[in-house]
Amino acid sequence: MEEGSVKVITISDLLRRSRPLTAASSLSLSSTPSIPPKPHTFNQNHNFTSPTQNPNPNPNPKTLTSLNHPTVLIGSLTLPSHQNLSTSNPTSRCPNTSCFSFSDGSSTVCCDILDLDIRVIGRKIKVVAWNFIPLKCGGGFLEIISWRFLETSGVLSSCSNVFPLVSESLIESKDSHKARYSVFGGLESVSPVSVVPCVSSSSVSTNVCGFLAQVLVCECKVCSMKKSKMPLQDQIEGKDGHWFTKPVIVYFCGLASSWHPVIVKLVGSVVSLSGLKRKLVFIGEKDSELMYITSEKTTLCLPKLFDGRFPVSKTRIKGKGECETYTGTVTGIYMQGMVVELDREVMLLLTDSLIALPHSFRIGAIVSMRNVHFVNPKFCWTKVLILGACHKTSFIVKCFSPFATGCFRNSQSQSILGKFINSLSFSARLWVLLLVSSFRKKFASILTEKEVLGTNHKEGLLQTYATSWLPPSVFRSRHGVFREYCKHDSCGCGNEPNCGQLKLVVPISHFISHCKEIWIRMLLEWETDSNLLDDPDKNSHLSCEGLSNTRSIKRIVHSGDMGVVLLGSVKISSCSGRLQLIDATGNIDVIIPDLSSDWSIDRIYEVNNFSLVMEGKPERVDSLGLHTEPFLCRNIFSSIPLIREMKLANYLFFHLEDTKSRNFPFHVGVKNKENFEELQSGRFHLLLVTHKYPEQQKFQGASMFAEVFFLPWDLLLVDKDGHKCPTKLFSDLLKEPMEQPYASRNYQECVPSKRYKIDHPWNRDLISIFSSAEYELCGHKPCCSTSSSTRSYWEQKSSSLSSPPEIPCVVTRKGQCQASSGILCWSKANLKVYSGCKPSAQKTLLEFNSENFWKYELLRIGGYYIIKHHKEDILCTTQDPDDVSCGKVNITSRTPLWSLSFSSDESLQNTNRPHRPTDSLDSTNEAVSKCPSENERPLLNLNVDSRVSHSDLHVHLSSNDASFLKEDIEVPDECLVKPSVSVKESAKISSCKETMRSGSVHYSGTSDLEYQLPEGNLISFHGSVVDVHNSGCSSSGANLWCKSHVDVSCTKFFQVKNSVCIHVLVDHHPVKIVDAQGKHSYPIGFGPNVTATFHRVLDLRGRNELILTPTSFIVIKSIGVSYDQRGEKHDNGLIASGQCNLASLDTYPSALISEILQCSNCKPVQFHCRVVAIYILVLEDSRKVVYPQSRFHSWSPVVNIPLAAFVLDDGSSSCCCWTNSDNAAILLKLHEEFLHDNHTLSTTGSKIIREDEARGPTVRQLDKVLQKHGRVSVKNYGSLFDSSAQDLIFSTTSDTIFSSSDEDLLKVVILNACFSTFWTVFGTRMNSNAIGKLEKQLMEMEMKMHPMQNIWVREVQYTNPLTEARKMAQELLNR
Amino acid sequence: MATDALYNTHVKLLAFDFLSLTPAPSDPFAFTRPSGNLLLTRAETLGVVTTRELKPDRFLKFSVDDGTGCIPCILWLNHLTSPYFSRRNPSDVRLVSEAATRFASQVQLGAVVRVRGRITGYRGAVQITVSDVVVERDPNVELLHWLDCVRLARMYAFTLLLMCIRKQ
């Protein structure tokens, strides 16, 4: 018993306490508690650099509770019992067959020991420092840090270093004479313990448990002797010149297999085994291997002279599956122990059920892995190193974790998914494991676990998805432990295929966090740039009515840059009424231009190809929230901390049927109700959508409304019985007599696999026929205002018919190539009033309840739709057709709507017919007025209003019938309001006579004069949104636009609180629209640079202002995103304030450099100059920048230029011009290799070219140089006025040598820049503050500011000599 | 305003003006205009190549006609052999030499070239020792150059005026 106050604690006591504890006997001797040394990160024996220390590695590091008195454990360490190998270790109920046991008589627990001395096995020891971790299933785990023998030193000295593997009492001597072989060499690797079914001579089947070990033996003469006369010990120690090169396999089977935990700890040591048998062992059906097999006489010897490691050749790690050793700290364990994170950036994969994770692999432990495969998967979304564990891998804990973290117990099930994962290469395994984690989060409440992961017999959704993405090269066939161990190199786990193309499926919550992180990074980068410029006006401000507003910034990131895939359902949000992509973790707004009736809210869509648009006001950000990195593997496996709320709007833009990029539904959760069966035959009412009422915020979750006109024609469909006729022309088909029904014809050459396009000239032109006629107001009085020509046609037609006219047509359904016949006939309601007079359309409201919001979403203003006729429907029950105009039709799930499109063969002859620029279907070709500056400096446009038609039904008519029909399906103009040609003259627009009071939505006004409703015309128009901002001026803001008596009343009416101003350019004229209440439901993506149609906006009489009413509806046509928002601020502010119609960078005054230097202010100017030399140039690999393509590096996608100074000369003087990013790339002429046509070049241009064809040879070489060195700085210590006398000095951040060829390449680039033509530079003279900041930066680079004048370059453009000459001539004449 | 206000600037002078330059008595590397003592060392001109005389690996002499006169230019091609460059970094010399050879090939009769270099004297006449040549393809650049020269001439005159005022 220990002297003093040291207590002995029993295992049963520890188990009873069931708490994680640490203790040491030295506690009383030391003033500080004895806590195991803090884990520290170290890497050895591998070529990877030490990972960067994360500032916050463990948010809650709880160290193990220490017992407050010195405590020891007394017991003995034993090997695992493998006698009954079909069952697990009975003593500890631990399934791990490689665990030591510690028993003190009271109980037995699993244990692990540091610095194993084999003599300890079976002897009584005193454990003086230990950790105890309770295991969930009742047991516990003991970590023995230090121990002492209880026996006296005399007993110990008698212990030799030769250990029999099988206890003498268990020996049954049979063929002991065969056990005459010995193996002496370096232990290279050990396999996991496996069980082999075996049939013994007595035909009783038994299981043989064992493991394989590979020993590299020496082939020298002494070692090669079969029977050495010398004793083994002498043989080993008598010679020191051994070369361990020849691999032999030793099979530790039977009772010897219990030595597995010992042998694992000896990997890397020199061992000697004697008393071995030699046998040929089958390792597969045909293959056999000569092995040494342990016998009951086998002994293990650890030669004293070979105490250290045997020398091994180091492999050069390329990350392609090389086998090496890795040591690091466990920082996370995920997926039930299948993934272990080391050093926060290395992922150890332990998917194989045989490879058990030791209990001591707790978070915080320092562990070493031998023979682990190093794989760099090169995933595009994250940087990670994979360590792949195979059957040769062994694990040793170097230092136990001081943290109270739990042990993992392997419980890999052998489900189909488990087998599938194990059949993959390591990088694919990690990808699938990430997929598992992601899918479980995404579909937590949508699908069951079994549906997602599958069962033991059935594949789940996840496996189906993974299989569809994985290339065949990642699949490996598995061969069992023996074969894979013995033929390791030929089994393929050391040869890793490239999986860089695999995209990460992210939960939407992670995606949104990622968006925020990109946004913060962009703002930070922008702030850095602006700080350097010292621009007080760095945030673009828009002046509106004397009030300044910060403009929002918009950025776009393409999915290709992120390397992620989004999965989710596309639904209408019940809260916002917006279209969203939803999964169990979150939702994000989406714009889907090609949304069609195929869309099902029950489907799960895979969105591969999308554009992420982020829009928000610039705000001050810090880098505190920047360490979430939602796409990191550990964050996918676990959860991510929330980033604070930001004023940021995110939305996605994608096409749903973009089959090339796999944006398609891949899973149907609930069977989609196919309404298309109903479309096969029957009578359908034809309707035209004239207006959609936006969602009213206070009626959330209530109903949505659309105004439609039921046209006086019904469509009769007969069952299709068509046959393919792909060669016949459609026009020919219609010329055939009616007796031959069109049903037998296919009017278009259809390829079944190809999406059916109806955006055909025929279609467009028919619609133009319908709509291009001169409209006249007819109100609710039909048959009064038809033109004489049409009337005569009508009279002719009606007089020639004794019955109501019927128009035969050919009908094609979406997705079907076979055409069928149909008939357009008068509607039932009109039949009642048929008397040779033209029938009328009837205005009705469609009401959509929340379950059918998706149908509302599909409706397009100006689109034709059909609705199935029911006896009880409103059209057929009303006696007086005029009554319907006041009616309302409830659209329920049982009343499907199908979209309809028309075409006629006449259109072929009328291709040049002018189009009526309305919001009807033909608006494809309408000339939407664009901001002139927008035309000059094109934006990247997302075409929201994709007019690739996706109508469910296509109706083709003969030309005669089409012209007959067009008269009847035209709609009163009061509904399809013409866009104003000139908003300035909006008061003159006579097409709209509807006032607010007679509008469809009635305000609850009173007769009180104070609450008089504002009056004016409702107009519709297209325009380019310049800015949208809150007036933020409550009553004062209201007063600004409500000055007259009427205005005062409207102020009261609208209860102005926080109105929204929308500045729109319509035909180059600035127009201001006011959303008085600021509560309008704007469509997703609405904001600056959007081209939109504004429907039913109230034009107050006599004022050049428009009011957005609750009935106004905005349809976005396209969304523009400029590459450099900063460039825009110079013009749009002026445009919006009406001061300037055509502003651009030309608004900067031109000057000579000498004049800028004399000028006292720092206003931006433009000047023409040439590059003479560089002063400083910093180049870096743009892959280090967050999505460089989405930022400013449109021309040099591989090169980022954080800082550059060029000496420019314009003939009047020289100056030092500082710039970065694109402007620097332009001055270096890096883009010239990208573009052949350089006339339209500017930094804000959007010339889109394919990246692969864009990169020239120099840029490719530059790319290589930057890849090698990361960041290169070039400083000119020579002449700044003579390009050929520059003295360029190069420096890099990397340790690699900057070769002369690399130098030459950069010198050529710089010289080439100096031999350039004229540039037009837009810049500002830097003030002392900016220069001070720059000096600081230069000081870090050991450079000084040159005493030349310094100018910050905002933009660089090629000079157009003719334009400039004209301007200069004008200037000279004016002076 | 010092006399060296334009010392390191590539001044743009029309040929008639350029040809009137005389060596500055105060500075062996500088030239001055008859109208004042502004020191000029570098110039830029633009015009049509009207004469061309090549001595391979030694020099290319050519003249640039800008419509007001012809400016003689010399482009040295002897970088690799001249002792003048022997102290410079060999790789720099090689690159400059390669560039000069490329310029020489571009300077062809009839081509519109933009030439930049040092103002030097040779046998009593002024010329440009070329540092770089850019072949211009847009004929409008000549027009722009003329106007630029006119604008700059005003600026040079103004600089001179300022200089005189300050002197007084």
TrEMBL record, chain A:
Domain of life of the organism in this record?
Eukaryota
State what protein this is by name: Uncharacterized protein
Organism field? Vaccinium darrowii
From TrEMBL, chain B:
Q: This protein's superkingdom?
A: Eukaryota
Name of this protein: Uncharacterized protein
Q: Which organism is it from?
A: Vaccinium darrowii
